[in-house]
Amino acid sequence: HSLHIQEGSKIKVGDILLTFEKESVEDQLDSYQMQLDNAEDAMENAKDNVETADEAIEDAKKSLEDILETKEDFSITAPISGQIISKIALEGDTIASRSILCTIYDLSAVVFEMYVDELDVLSVNTGQEVTVTADAFEETAFQGVVTNVSLQSTASGGVTQYPVTVRVNEPGDLLPGMNVTGEIIIERKENVIAVPSEALMRGDVVYVVDPTVTEAVGDVPAGYKEVAVETGITDGDFIEIKSGLTGNEEVYVIRNTGAGEIMIDFMPGTMPANNAEFHNNQRYGGRTNANVEIRPNNRR
Question: Which of 133, 148, 169, 185 would be 129's cystine partner, CB 3.0–4.6 Å?
């Protein structure tokens, strides 16, 4: 640098006192630039350290989650809600991956299978109501529903049958293994005119009381006249009369008592004729579906 002052000399504002040489200024600029570069390098290193620290934190969190999951894997939980029927594992037993600890029954509903003859199976559909009675509860009827009609038939003695699954959603005191009888309601009608099946004669006619008839005419006894009727559904005991009767007539009924035949005057509507529910008792293959064992809705 060059110094432009002398001791005792006079100066004015703005006079040059010192001039730096070019090399000296460049050296200082280089020094400052180096300090700036060093500062930026330090900042980058700090950022790298922060990223490394963040990665270390994430790794630690993942390791902690894995440990917690492993801890939960040591506990075996119940797969369904229900009642433990049998306990197989004992305290101190060695438990392997396929060990059976216990048997759980879901008794919120029960199911059973009944077998339907090939002549009747086309009338059975899922969703139909089923009246279920049990030997253990003679005075109680349970309501079920058809949940499946299987096509996997079985044949015996020339008769083919199809398994139908029924679920009882409110089983009450029904227990697995109890014997039950199911009656599938094929069709329901209310407030209809119906007569006993014995009242329907050949040709869809009934004999109606008529005091003006004093002599028998063919098979029609005295005091009765022949009336043609149109029939509907039947449950085997009663037959729906769709037309031909008003519901106020008395009809002729012949019933076999074993000791002989008796004649009964029956007025439609005096028994389960009006307000009747017709259902198919499903007497398949010459037998009813009684003594079918129920089982739990789910078993694990």
Answer: 185
From the list 284, 256, 254, 257, the residue with the least C-alpha distance to 266 is 254
User: How many Å apart are CA 295 and CA 111, to the nearest integer?
Assistant: 5
User: CA angle, 292 as apex, 168 and 139 as ends, to 5°?
Assistant: 65
The DSSP string of the chain is -EE---TT----TT---EE--HHHHHHHHHHHHHHHHHHHHHHHHHHHHHHHHHHHHHHHHHHHHHHHHHHHTT----SS-SEEEEE---TTPPP-TT---EEEEEEEEEEEEEEEETTTGGG--TT-EEEEEETTEEEEEEEEEEEEE----EEETTEEEEEEEEEES--TT--TT-EEEEEE------S-EEEEGGGPBTTTEEEEE-TT--S-BTTBPTTEEEEE-EEEEE-SSEEEEEES--S---EEEEEE-SS-EEEEEE-TTSSTTTT--------BTTB---SEEPEEEEE-
How far is residue 152 from each of residues 23, 130, 167, 284, 298, measured CA to CA in Å?
105, 21, 19, 17, 21
pLDDT at 106: 83
- Whole-model pTM over 0.70: no
Q: Tell me the C-alpha distance between 10 and 212, whole Å.
A: 166
pLDDT digits (tens, 9 = 90+) for 27-41: 667 777 788 778 877
